[in-house]
Amino acid sequence: MKIAVIGADGQLGTDVVKAFTANGDEAVSLTHSDIEISDKDSVSERMTALRPNFIVNTAAMHHVDKCEQDPTKAFAVNGLGAKNLALVAREIGAKLMHVSTDYVFDGEKKSPYEESDPPRPLNAYGNSKLSGEYFVRSTAPQHFVLRTSAIYGKRPCRAKGGLNFIELMLKLARERGEVKVVDDEFVSPTPTPEIARQMVALSRSDAYGLYHATAEGSCSWYAFAKEIFALTNTKVNLLIAGPNEFPIKVPRPKYSVLENAALKKQGLNVFQPWQQGLRAYFSTSS
Ligand SMILES: NC(=O)c1ccc[n+]([C@@H]2O[C@H](COP(=O)([O-])OP(=O)(O)OC[C@H]3O[C@@H](n4cnc5c(N)ncnc54)[C@H](OP(=O)(O)O)[C@@H]3O)[C@@H](O)[C@H]2O)c1
Description:
Elements: E1 2-6, H1 11-22, E2 26-30, H2 40-50, E3 54-57, H3 64-69, H4 71-92, E4 95-101, H5 124-139, E5 143-148, E6 151-152, H6 165-176, E7 178-181, E8 186-187, E9 190-191, H7 192-203, E10 209-212, E11 219-220, H8 221-231, E12 237-240, H9 261-266, H10 274-283
Parallel strand pairs: 1-2, 1-3, 3-4, 4-5, 5-10, 6-9, 7-12
Antiparallel strand pairs: 8-11
Helix pairs in contact: 1-7, 2-4, 4-5
The structure holds NADP nicotinamide-adenine-dinucleotide phosphate.
């Protein structure tokens, strides 16, 4: 298959290109300088020239504070950008795989969210991503929408300034010897190579729809940091951050754990427990 990967130099996009290429597909890497998803003409020109069988969209504006400051831009990229891709996918008969987020939920449920749970985003980022999901689901007949959570990969996230959570923890431990982390926000830390493998597995099916796609199990950011330090034998004084130690400007869900219910129903879930994914991160070089 010819796969157009949008956001190809991003944290997730890099591993998506690798996974489809390893699978024997022709993965065409598209970076921001090749395509502007919020611009309908740019999307249409690029995709009609390329004529992929399959489009994977990992591109987004996903810095939560910046989305809150500029919701118009957030909706242009995360909402209308997804719509532009859905329209062109329908027109050229391509399948569309679109990446969304756990931040479509408010975190009040306190048990893992399934695909059937009603979304209720708390911020502009979550709202704009939810609008993108709706555009894709209502416009592109052959779509896969994958909601994921707390992702990390070897290639740093471009939007968040160079270090993933793991590397940030290790850097702080080296520099300060003491690290404080919140223990009241729960996620499923998900490695990008696993998301990419999941995409390849789904791309071979015609089980179109909405999927939760995260590592198995969950933890607080504090527990994640504890496991990082244990696996790397890092000597550090790890402390639980006090309630007002890291004041946040924009509301976020305190509990955004997702259950991969739809993937399991299809017999297609490839995700491992988050601890295993973390071990794999430390045992691979790129
Ligand atoms: N990070 C997380 O913890 C997390 C959690 C849940 C879901 N997600 C979702 O996962 C996806 C991938 O995240 P990531 O960490 O891989 O992000 P990333 O490293 O920031 O990569 C995003 C890529 O998209 C490109 N891009 C941004 N705006 C674009 C636009 N308007 N048109 C075309 N390309 C554009 C970026 O290029 P430039 O950098 O050159 O602009 C970059 O190549 C996103 O959809 C995000 O919402 C992330």
